[in-house]
Amino acid sequence: MKTEFALFGATGSIGASIAATLREAGVRYRVVGRDAKSLQKTYGADPLAEIRTWNPDDPASVVAAAEGVDTLITMVGVPYDQFHLHPQIMRQTLAGAIEAGVKRVVLIGTLYPFGRPQTDRVNEFHPREPHTYKGRMRKEQEDILMEAGRSGQIQTTILRLPDFYGPRVERSYLDGVFKAIASGGRAQMLGPIDRPHEFVFVPDVGPVVMKLARNPWAYGRTWNLGGAGVITQREFAEKAFALAGRGKVKLMVAGRLMLRLMGLFNPVMRELVEMHYLLTGPLMVDDTALQELLGGYDKTSYEEGIAACLKA
After folding, report:
1. What is the pTM of this model?
2. 10 Å Cβ neighbour count for 245?
3. In the chain, which residues have pLDDT < 70?
4. For residue range 229-256, what is the model confidence (pLDDT) as tens digits?
5. Number of domains forming the structure of the chain
6. Is there a single domain that holds both residue 156 and residue 204?
7. Do 21 and 114 lie in a common domain?
8. Which residue, 32, 151, 225, 234, has fewest beta-carbon neighbours within 10 Å?
9. Residue pair 162/226 in contact by the 8 Å Cβ criterion
10. CA-closest candidate to residue 199, choices 135, 282, 136, 288
C-alpha cells in the first residue's frame, strides 16, 4: 500500500506542524529520523504514523525509508556548526528516493541562499548570492535538488521560510520572551531588536505544505512563505508581556559583540555571528506567487500566536 507522505527529519517543530495537519485530515504518513526513541516519544501514540529510522550514510537505509512513498518532505536538520552536511545529505536522500521510486520531493528551506536583500521585498526570483558559508551550503543543497528535478528523474520543489515561532518552539529568536514570562525573569534576546522583521507561526506551516505538496503546478520551481506582517522583536516582546499581564517589559539584549564573546564558550553562539546580518538588514519576503498558487492561506496574527504560546 502506497504512503502519500514521508516526513524526513520529523522530530522538529516544522515536522510536527505538518504531521498535525495530516493527522487532522486523517492521512496516514511516515516519519523518518535517526533516533527511534525520539520518534516513538513524539509519534508513538498516533495510529496514522508509521515510524522508520534511517542513516543517510547507508544507501540501503535511505531506500528502505523511502520505499512505497509518493511524496517525500525533507526538513532534515544538522548541527549549526556542520552545515557542510546539508548538500551531502540531500545527495544521499535524492539517490535513495529515486531508487525507491518516489515521485516528488519537497524541501523545507530557509532564506539563507538569498544573501543580503537587494530589494524591499524578496520574491523567488531575487538573486541567490549568499555571502555566508551557511548560505552557500544551503544554496548548494537547493541546486542539487532542483537539478534532479530538471533531469526528469523526480519532481522537486522548495518552500523557503523566514524565522518562526510557536508553542514550545525553542529554536526561535523569540523563545526567550516566553521563557521570561513563565519564569518572571528578563527576556534574553539577540539584537538589534528595533529593526523590521517577520515571523511565521509554526502551526500555520503544515496546512501550506500539504496544499503545496499536492499541487501539481508547485513542482519545478521554488516558493516563499511570508510571515504575518512586519514587526520588531521589541514590539513582539511588548505585545507578549502585555497579553500576559506582566506590565513593564524586561529585556536583556545581546548584540554582535556579545555574540562574539559568548561564542568563545558556546559553539552555537559562535556560528550565529555570520548570520547576524538577518537582524541588522531585514529580509522581508514576498509570497504573492504562493498565495496565488494555493488560493490564499491563513496567517495567524501575532496577537493570536502569542496567546497560543502563552497558553502552552
Report:
1. 0.95
2. 8
3. 259, 263
4. 999 999 999 999 999 998 788 898 877 7
5. 2
6. yes
7. yes
8. 151
9. yes
10. 282
